[in-house]
Specification:
heterodimer; A: 350 residues; 2 strands; 72% helix; B: 588 residues; alpha/beta; Rossmann fold; 3 domains; 6-stranded mixed sheet; 4-stranded antiparallel sheet; 24 helices; elongated
């Protein structure tokens, strides 16, 4: 390997790594606030890219039906919840929040289907279509178990990946898509060529990480999220509702996932189930950072991106093996540096 | 469920299943073969997750390692399938031991996430190895021969599969009712208590993990020679996840949950494959959705799975009475009056706070020493230092002349110190007798294999008699099969005392044993502690109840703000003005 190739691989890895950074930040956000290791998160990334691809082809994106299905189920769950607790007056509010709000972008997309929207409007609409998926899933499957152990939440979240990939196949079909490039310019730095797509990916990761930081640091909802992740019971005592922080965490994370999807769309062909592997790679990155640290997750994600890039140069068919096996030395290192074992109870039975 | 009911159910299953080739069509037998093969893996998951509290999404990878190992050795290298079995199990066990050694020290969610990662890595490896036929796999795997009988026909290998499954189920059931099995069951919950009894949590976890992997390996071997073909797909992560859900669906808290879950899932899958194509062009996508919905509903509403529902219809067999047996060997108690525990200059800091500040004292064999002090005096920290739950920053502790300053909990337990906990640490879903039996771990020897083959019964009977004896001493022997979680808090403390006594300690350290006890119970506890003193057991107790302590102990150590304030006979300590000031506030 020449230094030039090394440089190219490195730049390529950092570009991919930037996507993992955004996905990893979303995973850490969800985990630290709700204790859910949200395995299906990668699906949101893939769905976002597929949504944009469908719009660019002038087709109705499957997300419209997907969101409608999820919203309908959520309305049923919400209605049942309030009915059983003898609070039927709350049903209307629940239906508006979970049934009407998520369907606004879907309705827009439905009506706009076939008309040629400007590129930026398409991107905005695609993101708006995908963002409700996270909070809706949280409401349907995870909130009823909000007080369960991390392990049980993880198992539920794994069960959800089955369902979400099934829904993905149902609504997006088995065909793979690649979105149109967002930019096509090419920059030369001496012998090294950098595409504007790469710059866009890295810059977006940096900008959105910064925005997330500012949100946590300077806004009240951001501080509420931080408070919840530090101490759930304490946050509850000072009046922070766990349900609303969970919704907010999933909403923000979905936004990060949707943006990642838009960014990764032009670089590779994505299928309905491509998200799973993307999500897991971001996970490996986040675990390197300990799953609770944002900067740690970002660094871990960049490392995974670069590692993947070099591994695919070395042996493209074994790159997945390399990326996933790297978790084992990482876990070894963590187990040695931690030195103690969690005291958390690992109950599966109820 | 009792062992007898379990045996009855197993026997009934044996009869129905054994007769299957007589009443069932070829397709049904194929289905039964798959159920058996899946159930073997699920049995490992039940052991691992349901009993051991460890979750793995990666069992399919072990199935795959074994299947590929035997397929390669027999189809490519032309060896006998029986050699393939040995090779497959050896390789699976080795890989499991290596992966376990790396990941099992991690608690909580890291282990399952780790299993996802290596489950994927191993799967991708299968598809990229030239020698393993890449994504095409290995074809023409030979069938198994027993002597000259070929197990190629579906009905023939059926007997092998179900024979292996039934034997494996019985062995695992035996194991769970033994010394090591109780240790496995005690893994669910915190590790401090388990280690304080001298049980190596890591070793038990590793063994459990390897056993589960070997069961998966057996399944993989059977699979390879039944389907006569291996390719990467049946060993992907998705299948690994399904094995976990089989166990949860069937009931991970019960050994038969594995078969029930495997049967349910296979039959449901089969039924859905018939029904769903009528609703959608591609039934597969709906199948995944249907299963996802079922899993989420089960986890939300019936986490125990199907088994608890089935067990409601089963008669409860009588639990075996605990017979008397030769007592377990006891340690030689040190001579009364010799220095037993010597602490010098102990320091423990938490950040800037010095919780224990240069504390030194002695405990002599055969006496009862009380450690008292106001809230926050550092009593519990000192207690944790003495029992090895935390390490001191400075100072030395020696026990019977041996330096234990840096010893872990297990070494301290082996040396002869037993403890109870301020916040009771029991296994609420285990019976009283099983909780106390955990205490006999270091006094018994039976290993995993011995227990699975029931060669441990003499020793087990002695341990049970010992545990019952300790229950009698604390007044809890009336219903030894009651679950520990059903006891009120005060009685749970007594149960902890019984567990500590079952370790046959030279020194027993009790953390607020009288808290939550009624007055008659306190009197009975005081009598018990005096009886222990007569037997030569030394007692160190941390207590808030000054009246209880004053009437009982030989000497008192008083702590305040992390320092030793006073030491001496109860009356002298009570008269000490510094002690009065600490407790009542200074008069001046």
């Amino acid at each position: 390997m020449t230094p030039d190739i090394g440089l190219i691989l490195g730049i390529d890895g950092i570009a991919t790594g930037s996507i993992y950074v955004l996905v990893g930040l979303g995973l850490v956000l969800i985990f630290s606030v709700t204790r859910v290791v949200f395995v299906p998160f990668g699906d949101i990334v893939a769905f976002s890219a597929l949504t944009l691809a469908a719009m660019q082809l002038g087709r109705m994106p499957g997300t419209v039906y997907l969101t409608a299905t999820l919203a309908a189920v959520t309305c049923l769950v919400e209605t049942g919840h309030h009915w059983r607790r003898g609070q039927p007056q709350r049903i209307a509010r629940g239906v508006v929040i979970y049934g009407v709000l998520p369907l606004i972008p879907a309705a827009v997309a439905f009506l706009a289907a076939g008309t040629a929207l400007p590129a930026l409007a398409q991107i905005a609409l695609a993101i708006a279509l995908v963002v409700p998926i996270g909070p809706l899933i949280e409401r349907i499957a995870l909130r009823p178990l909000a007080d369960a152990s991390i392990l049980l939440l993880l198992i539920v979240s794994v069960a959800l990946t089955f369902g979400l990939s099934g829904l993905g196949l149902l609504f997006f079909g088995a065909e793979g898509f690649r979105t149109r490039p967002l930019t096509t310019e090419i920059f030369r730095f001496g012998t090294v060529i950098v595409t504007s797509q790469t710059i866009l990916m890295v810059a977006s990761a940096a900008v959105f990480s910064l925005l997330l930081f500012l949100f946590f640091e300077y806004t009240l909802p951001g501080r509420a999220l931080r408070a919840t992740s530090v101490n759930r019971i304490g946050a509850r005592i000072v009046g922070i509702r766990p349900a609303s922080t969970a919704t907010l965490a999933f909403l923000l994370a979905s936004l990060l996932g949707a943006i990642s999807g838009i960014l990764i769309g032009p670089t590779t062909t994505l299928y309905y189930d491509s998200g799973f592997i993307i999500g897991l790679k971001a996970f490996v990155g986040a675990i390197i950072g300990g799953l609770t640290s944002y900067p740690g997750a970002a660094l871990g994600a960049l490392f995974i991106g670069v590692l993947e890039s070099f591994a695919s140069f070395w042996n493209s068919s074994l790159k997945e093996v390399v990326v996933f096996s790297v978790l084992i030395p990482v876990l070894l290192w963590r187990s040695l540096s931690l030195g103690h074992v969690d005291e958390e109870d690992a109950e599966v039975e109820g | 469920m009792s062992r007898r009911a379990a045996t009855a159910l197993v026997l009934a299953a044996v009869v129905v299943v054994a007769a299957a080739p007589l009443w069932a069509a070829e397709f049904t037998i194929t289905l039964l073969n798959y159920i058996g093969i899946y159930a073997l893996v699920a049995l490992g998951v039940v052991l691992l997750t349901g009993f051991g509290g460890l979750t793995s999404f990666g069992q399919a990878a072990f199935v795959g390692i074994a299947a590929y190992a035997t397929a390669w050795l027999t189809a490519v290298e032309g060896a006998s399938p029986w050699l393939g079995l040995l090779f497959a199990l050896a390789l699976t066990g080795l890989v499991a031991a290596l992966l376990g050694a790396v990941t099992l020290r991690l608690g909580g969610h890291y282990l399952p996430l780790g299993t996802v990662a290596w489950g994927l890595a191993i799967f991708f490896l299968f598809g990229n190895f030239e020698a393993l036929g890449r994504h095409n796999g290995i074809a023409n795997v030979p069938p198994i021969f027993v002597g000259s009988i070929s197990l190629e026909p579906t009905a023939a290998i059926f007997y092998l599969i179900w024979g292996v499954l039934i034997i494996a189920t019985i062995l695992i059931a035996n194991l769970l009712e033994s010394r090591e099995g109780r240790a496995i069951r005690s893994l669910r919950g915190g590790v401090t208590m388990v280690e304080s009894l001298g049980i190596s949590v890591f070793r038990i976890r590793l063994m459990t993990f390897v056993i589960a992997a070997l069961l998966a390996g057996l399944s993989g071997w059977l699979y390879a020679h039944m389907s006569r073909f291996v390719s990467p797909t049946p060993f992907d992560l998705r299948m690994g996840i399904e094995y976990l859900f089989m166990a949860i669906l069937g009931g991970s808290g019960h050994i038969l949950g594995a078969v029930v879950g495997a049967a349910l899932l296979t039959l449901l899958q089969n039924a859905l494959q018939d029904i769903l194509p009528r609703f959608a062009s591609n039934g597969q996508q709906l199948e995944a959705i249907v299963f996802s919905v079922i899993y989420v509903l089960v986890l939300q509403f019936a986490r125990g799975g199907v088994m608890p529902l089935l067990l409601r219809f089963m008669p409860r067999a009588a639990l075996p009475a605990i017979a008397s047996a030769a007592p377990l060997p006891r340690r030689a108690m040190p001579n009364v009056g010799t220095p037993l525990l010597v602490a010098e200059g102990l320091v423990k800091r938490f950040g800037g706070l010095e919780a224990v500040s240069r504390v030194g004292f002695q405990v002599f064999a055969g006496e009862i020493v009380g450690l008292i002090g106001p809230n926050g005096a550092g009593k519990t920290t000192l207690f944790n230092l003495l029992t090895g739950a935390i390490r001191s920053d400075d100072g030395t502790i020696s026990f019977l002349g041996e330096d234990i300053s840096r010893a872990g909990q297990r070494r301290i337990a082996t040396a002869g110190i037993a403890r109870t906990f301020q916040h009771v640490r029991l296994r609420p879903r285990m019976s009283l007798i099983d909780n106390v039996l955990l205490g006999t771990y270091l006094r018994t020897r039976a290993g995993f294999l011995q227990s699975a083959l029931r060669l441990d019964r003499t020793e087990e009977a002695r341990a049970r008699a010992e545990a019952l004896h300790q229950l009698q001493r604390v007044g809890l022997a009336a219903d030894p099969y009651n679950l520990a979680g059903n006891l009120p808090l005060g009685r749970q403390r007594l149960l902890e005392v019984a567990r500590a006594l079952a370790t046959d300690p030279a020194l027993i350290v009790l953390d607020e044993p009288a808290a939550g006890l009624s007055r008659p119970e306190k009197l009975a506890l005081a009598d018990l502690l005096r009886a222990l003193r007569r037997e030569g057991v030394t007692v160190l107790l941390v207590e808030h109840d000054v009246e209880f302590v004053m009437g009982l102990v030989d000497r008192i150590v008083v702590m305040d703000f992390g320092c030793k304030l006073a030491e001496g006979a109860p009356a002298a300590v009570r008269a000490d003005p510094r002690v009065q000031a600490a407790y009542l506030g200074s008069v001046a």
